[in-house]
């Protein structure tokens, strides 16, 4: 079936003008306007659209609209969404009266929040100061500097379109766990939760009360996240006791059953000593020292040292059936599986994986419900206290100098503790 002919009211010149350029004059200047959408010849008046007006008339119309009307117009089609950008709104609405309102507009999705409770202003590295002491480590040698002023490339809260809503800031990677952002119209500095990655708005006093009751760094967590983190820490220590017990029983059983086998005794003794070194490193590394590559290498060494005893145990079972040998084999396999999981967990920690990723919005279901929780589980299995690390977030500390800085601070704290203990003991004796 052939399409109907175009209406007779449209001649050929009008048809050409509708699909080409339309000149218009203003101050002796030729301005051409190209239609964004192809014309419809069957429409009663194909020029009855805002898109067919000259651009200077369009800008004149847009300049008389408020921010709400511009947002509605921006939501109509792709052309207005691309045209009405941040710079366009600054041109149309840039005035002292409107700048105060545009401070509470997200510069990414242009969501308007008149109260500003869901808007965040990310701070620079130099602005990440402790709210109690007002000090921060900003130099590579670990010295402190009282300076909270962000560099010029960070827009201040007083400028329009300087804020991001929480969702857009999370998607853009601007919310780093443990760092500070400004909220409440830029008047309050709050922490980013180390568990879920969202701002800890209104929970600072509660966190300090919980910290006084024994929960470390609770003021950097939401109340619910702090309780979950506390349960994870308790479960981690229970698992450490179980894993250490399995390793100890395994080595004792190997030493008693295969006391005359050097291929079993020597690797097992070396593995046992390396486990002691690993526990010592975990105990002294604190929040600033990166030792995951060292611990991961030692865990891999323990895993490799368990292969020769396993080979001897399997060969022995093939020759004769013994309940003690079978128990040693089962425990040794469990011990090696635990070491393998520890190697994977330390590798993930070495890559500085952000465990808050599975709390981000608009995450694919496979990553949200499987991959990210699986990787987070490896982190919590290996060292859940990694959430308290000082270097979490972009640009916190340089990797090459964190070990030296951390060990320097560790020895300073150790000397201070020894001096305080000596003074207290001397006063007690006197």
SSE arrangement:
Blueprint: H1 12-19, E1 22-26, E2 29-33, H2 55-62, H3 67-74, H4 78-83, H5 86-93, H6 96-102, E3 119-122, E4 136-137, E5 144-145, E6 164-165, H7 166-171, E7 180-183, E8 188-191, H8 204-212, H9 223-257, H10 262-284, H11 292-305, H12 307-319, H13 323-350, H14 365-382, H15 399-429
Antiparallel strand pairs: 1-2, 3-6, 3-7, 4-5, 7-8
Helix pairs in contact: 9-10, 9-13, 10-11, 10-12, 11-13, 12-13, 13-14
Can you describe what's shown?
Keywords: Membrane, Transmembrane, Transmembrane helix. The chain folds into three domains: 23-102, no CATH class; 119-137 and 148-223, no CATH class; 224-397. Helices cover 52% and strands 7% of the residues. It is built from 15 helices and eight strands. The chain has helices at 12-19, 55-62, 67-74, 78-83, 86-93, 96-102, 166-171, 204-212, 223-257, 262-284, 292-305, 307-319, 323-350, 365-382, 399-429, and strands at residues 22-26, 29-33, 119-122, 136-137, 144-145, 164-165, 180-183, 188-191. The radius of gyration is 33 Å and the shape is elongated.
Strand order of the largest sheet: 6-3-7-8
Question: For the report, how would you describe the main beta sheet?
Answer: 4 strands, antiparallel
Rg (CA only): 33 Å
Number of domains: 3
Q: Overall 3D geometry? A: elongated
**Fraction of helical residues:** 40-55%
Count of alpha and pi helical runs: 15
Runs in which pLDDT lies below 50 for 5 or more consecutive residues are 1-37, 129-153, 393-401
Residue fraction in strands = 5-15%
Question: What is the overall pLDDT average?
Answer: 72
Number of strands: 8
Distance between the termini: 113 Å
Reading the helices and strands in chain order gives HEEHHHHHEEEEHEEHHHHHHHH
Q: Please state the structural category.
A: alpha+beta
Keywords: Membrane, Transmembrane, Transmembrane helix
Region (Disordered): 1-29
InterPro entries: F-box-like_dom_sf, F-box_dom
Transmembrane segments: 227-254, 263-286, 292-314, 326-350, 370-392
